[in-house]
Design brief:
Length: about 150
């Protein structure tokens, strides 16, 4: 059992896993393999702000992150995408596999408001060929995320 499944079981979070032969690292790949529109696929982006402090942005697959809005919400001057090594270090997962909850470290999470328009969303499932369908309210609750407008 992987660490994400263990976390879900421990917290009694209802979710459904999908596993594929091919990677599901991009919104397009995930959307095609699971058969849902890109807006129901969410991206969990790991970023680095001032003083190398990590933060996470969660947004729907049909939107683009507005770095300036996120920086303002996070009260940081500069922000950049984390390197693959930093993503692994901060979350415990590889790029393209990061789930919206159950990260290795407690990281501030900013969830775009469009994510909350869906009852369930599909996200990275902890491995590059695995997705998870999870309730958007559970993402907010267990990530301790702040719902904001961070997309263009």
């Amino acid at each position: 059992m992987n660490k994400l499944q263990t976390y879900l079981n421990t917290h009694k979070i209802s979710a459904k896993f999908y596993e594929f032969d091919k990677h599901t690292m991009t919104v397009e790949a995930a959307s095609q393999q699971i058969g849902v529109e890109p807006s129901r696929i969410i991206k969990t982006l790991v970023l680095v702000g001032d003083e190398k402090k990590p933060l996470i942005a969660i947004l729907t697959g049909d939107k683009k992150l507005n770095m300036n809005r996120l920086a303002k919400e996070a009260n940081v001057k500069k922000i950049r995408l984390a390197t693959p090594k930093e993503v692994q270090l901060y979350t415990g997962y590889e790029v393209g596999a990061v789930p919206p909850i159950a990260h290795k470290n407690l990281i501030p999470v900013y969830i775009d408001q469009k994510v909350t328009t869906y009852n369930t969303v599909v996200a990275g499932g902890g491995e590059r060929n695995r997705l998870i369908e999870i309730n958007s309210a559970d993402i907010i609750k267990y990530s301790k995320g702040k719902v904001v407008n961070i997309t263009e």
